[in-house]
């Protein structure tokens, strides 16, 4: 049974679709990259998967009920969020808020897991620092640690390297790849086709046409060939991402 499956899905706002005829199925432990042109509906699809809005038509099936309640989500940051005046530790442990229910405090296990996730992200020494005083890369690590606290076995990431310099971007991709190798299912929206081909197990391309398949299948598809052609050096050598 698929972990998450979409059938003939249309997403959008106020009855107007921004992406249609979306079909995909991913298993536990897969790494799915959602790619496409700006305005193609990638973030809208992400919000629909999170049940923050309803699909216009079609359906989404969650093969293991209950897991959807434990999705870790890393959205694109706003300017206001980047200036949030809380400590790193406070932000990371807030990932457990939904799990607390009516309980007005974090239990011993949650505090321990927050420490573990900060260590996984290499930010333990920053835990008492104010979030707004951190660099962009450090802030993303904090938010990823928070998402891990909220996650069961799945992380949804919306442009997690947006605005980061190349070295920090590479470090962030390596962190995400490491989490996937630990067994966490990754669904990531990205405009970076090269990174999608390098890291993902599956590609969902949405736009005028929709493609879903393995990255190897994507490279042989019309959509994949078009974007690969744009990434070809002037001397005819293709940049390698495999």
Structural notes for this entry:
This protein is 36% helix and 22% strand. With 242 residues, it is an alpha/beta fold. The protein has one domain: Rossmann fold (3-Layer(aba) Sandwich). A hairpin with a 5-residue loop joins strand 8 and strand 9. The two termini are 28 Å apart.
CATH superfamily: P-loop containing nucleotide triphosphate hydrolases
Largest sheet: 6 strands, mixed
Q: Mean pLDDT, nearest integer?
A: 86
**What fraction strand?**
15-25%
Q: Can you lay out the helices and strands and say which pair or pack?
A:
Blueprint: E1 4-13, E2 16-26, E3 31-35, H1 42-49, E4 57-62, E5 71-74, H2 79-82, H3 88-93, H4 97-100, H5 108-120, H6 136-150, E6 154-158, H7 166-181, E7 185-189, H8 193-199, E8 202-205, E9 211-214, H9 215-220, H10 222-230
Parallel strand pairs: 3-7, 3-8, 5-6, 6-7
Antiparallel strand pairs: 1-2, 1-4, 8-9
Helix pairs in contact: 5-6
Task: Give a brief outline of the structure.
The chain is α/β, with parallel strands linked by helices. The protein has helices at residues 42-49, 79-82, 88-93, 97-100, 108-120, 136-150, 166-181, 193-199, 215-220, 222-230; strands at 4-13, 16-26, 31-35, 57-62, 71-74, 154-158, 185-189, 202-205, 211-214.
